[in-house]
Each structure stands twice: as structure tokens, then as C-alpha cells.
């Protein structure tokens, strides 16, 4: 046995070798600058544990936390015509789509799913701001219509999480046509007597705010979310006046009657369960209740076993 080769050299190499640390282990809070361990941040639903700042969260992560046991089924959305205007700016529209799909792992800017929340069956839709700013194009219009039709067919309420920079310019007037289309979809729910709850997240702006995002029976927002049609900078430059502190933020809109609630993300699920069961005429949810199938199995067993 060579003591130098087998023990001394590996020991020296371990002291001087550079250990590679994955870059995604830590995230920096945009608000307070605190470095947050990725697992701790994920467990807290992407909310800063230091200052409470709500960071972006993907639709799948949101649904994992929203639905009972993280179990949900995706609702199929009809695919629209790809690149109907053959739009090109610095990049071709199909190239931008491919980059967004690669970066998010999603096909488009909205995910529609069905499942149970607090043993209450619902249909839910959520926008992904990482996908081209969550912009509203033909697919998003199709997604909301598909969600509304599914909710009406099953007799379930619809919960929508908005996060968008407005209409998608690469689809021109076709994207603006989604405003009346989605308004009609919301009207379908109202005619069926089904609740439509909107949770506005940061940011919700432009044509999305001017259509389905502000038509809910109940309007809830996450803290400090920017909610507007035209942004504060545009308004300030137009009227040439200084805007009030916190203008167009969730708390400002709550004080001026535009919202019903401002609820932190960690408390949102319980609040939605309470509101949904109340609006559907169901008894309050019982926390920790056992599922019925297990009780049925126990009842089938002979006594003493």
C-alpha cells in the first residue's frame, strides 16, 4: 500500500479542489435583498420569510398548494392558429414562443385545471407572467372559455388567478378580441348561477384588467400587487402630476372600493374554501376530516378485526 498515493495526495486534492455549488440554491428577495434558501422559499409559497414580499409563483406550484393533496386534472384547451399575423419585431413570433415554452416548461400563458379544494370541487385557471408577460392572446381567450364551459358542465365554481402585462401585441386585434370573448364566458357562469372568484396577483394590467380580471363576484388580491389599466408612470407623464403613495397597488384599491379583500398567499387557500362553500350553500369545511372511502372499508370489516 502506497501511503502517499492513497492517503496524502487525495487529502491535499480535497483541500485545494474547488467545490461547485449549484446556482439555484439561493434566491434574493427583490424587496429587502435577503438571501433565501430555495427549499425554505418554496415551502413558504415563494413569499419572503423576512419581509413578506410575494414573489412570482408558477401556475403548477400554485395548484400544487391549492388543490387537496396537490391533485388536479388539466382541462384541455383548444389550440389557436399559430402566428396568424406572421408578426416579426426583433425576433419572429414563433421564436419568442419557443423561448417562452423552453423557459417555463409550459405550452402557453394559462393553465386550466379541475380538482377539489377543501373537499369542494372547482375549476381553476392561472396565468404565468413568465410566459411573455402572461400576455392575453387567443390561447388565453380559449383557456378562459374552456374553463367556463367546464365549470358550467360540471356545476362548479371558477377561480381565476390573473397575472398579465395586457394583450399580446404579436396577435394584434385578435388579442383585443379576447376581451369581449372572455366577458361572454364570465356571463355564462353568471347565467348558470355559479360563483366566479378572481385572485389578482402582481402585476395585473392592460386589457386583462379591462375584461375578465375585474368581473368576479368576489375580487381578492395578493398584497402589494400592481392592478391597473395604464401604468402609474404613463398616467404621471400624461397628467404631469405626482400620484399618491401606493397608487394602483392592492391596498390602495381596497381602500377605494375596487377590491373585496387583500389576502396573503399563505392564507388564501383557507379563505377561498370558506367563500366557495358559503357561495355554493355548503356547510363549513371541517379540517382534518377523514375521507369517506376509508370509513366505508372499515365498515365492511367483521367486528374484532
Summary tags:
alpha/beta; two-stranded antiparallel sheet; 12 helices; 7-stranded mixed sheet; 2-enoyl-CoA Hydratase, Chain A, domain 1; disordered C terminus
Q: What's the CATH architecture of the largest domain? A: Alpha-Beta Complex
How far apart are the termini?
Answer: 63 Å
Percent of residues in beta strands?
15-25%
Biggest sheet strand order reads 3-4-5-6-7-8-9
**Outline type:** globular
Q: Give unreliable regions as ranges.
A: 294-299, 301-305
CATH class membership of the largest domain: Alpha Beta
Q: What's the CATH topology label of the largest domain?
A: 2-enoyl-CoA Hydratase, Chain A, domain 1
Secondary-structure element order, N to C = HEEHHEHEEHEHHEHEHHEHH
Number of domains: 2
- Major β-sheet profile: 7 strands, mixed
Helical proportion, percent range: 25-40%
Question: What structural class is derived from the secondary structure elements?
Answer: alpha/beta
Instruction: State the fourth-level CATH superfamily of the largest domain.
Output: 2-enoyl-CoA Hydratase, Chain A, domain 1
CA gyration radius, whole angstroms: 24 Å
Average pLDDT metric: 90
Number of helices: 12
Number of strands: 9
Describe the protein:
There is one protein chain. It contains twelve helices and nine strands. It has helices spanning 3-16, 38-43, 59-66, 93-104, 138-154, 172-176, 178-191, 206-209, 232-239, 250-255, 265-279, 292-300, and strands at residues 26-28, 35-37, 72-74, 110-117, 120-127, 158-164, 196-204, 218-221, 261-262. The strands form two sheets. The protein has a seven-stranded mixed sheet, sandwiched between helices. It has a two-stranded antiparallel ribbon with strand order 1-2. Helix 5 (138-154) links the parallel strand 5 (120-127) and strand 6 (158-164). Helix 5 runs parallel beside helix 7 (178-191).
